[in-house]
Design goal:
The chain has 224 residues and is α+β, with helices and mostly antiparallel strands. It contains 5 helices and 6 strands, in the order E-E-H-E-E-H-H-H-E-E-H. Strand 5 and strand 6 form a beta hairpin. The protein is elongated and about 90 Å long.
Length: 224
Amino acid sequence: MIDYSTKVWTGATQIVVKGMKFSLVIALDDHDDPPWERADGHGPVSDWTRREKHPGERVLIKDRNFRRYYDVAQAQRIALRERWGTHRPPVARPRVATRLHGATWCDSATVTRLQDWLTARFGTKPASARMVAAQAVAEDFQYLHAWCKNAWWYLGYEVRLLDEDGRATAQRDACWGFESCDDYILTAAKEAAAAIVEHLRESQRNAARAQQRALFDVWNIAFA
């Protein structure tokens, strides 16, 4: 069973990146679109309905007499067609954290987990594409169900450079759409802070070079 418990909490703190201080604020993402509407690579989910489930569906979440259904049968067909759980990740990790959970790629650790699960369930015979797809669909359902049950949610960060007196400056960066069940948001925030430092230092270097050129021009004019 995958742990979807919250690993990152909202709040404010200070971090030091490349010798410079930043304020870091992590807050709830105010866009309440569900995961299956935010990104591709998920099984079909119905709207809220009172109808009984169709063959091949599972109840994703229930509220009184209303339900949302996850179409396992259709998700399996999509998983086989798009080869869920069998692709390598892109060379550069995307800015917003993504996980297997129905996505069309996964890293080596996820492949290992899939193989271990399949071996435990089916024995030592090689896992077929259908077996891998079935496990990917099962993980996708668990992932979406956990979001529906508020086991995790989306977060955003803002990093802002502080001056020597600890006051906020205009140098900032913000990004949203990170999962609270993954601490990648902290890595992304530190990377954004590092980019601010590099940009600031490059600007300082350019200003120093411009000043040197101006002084050189004045010197040439004075002794021409």
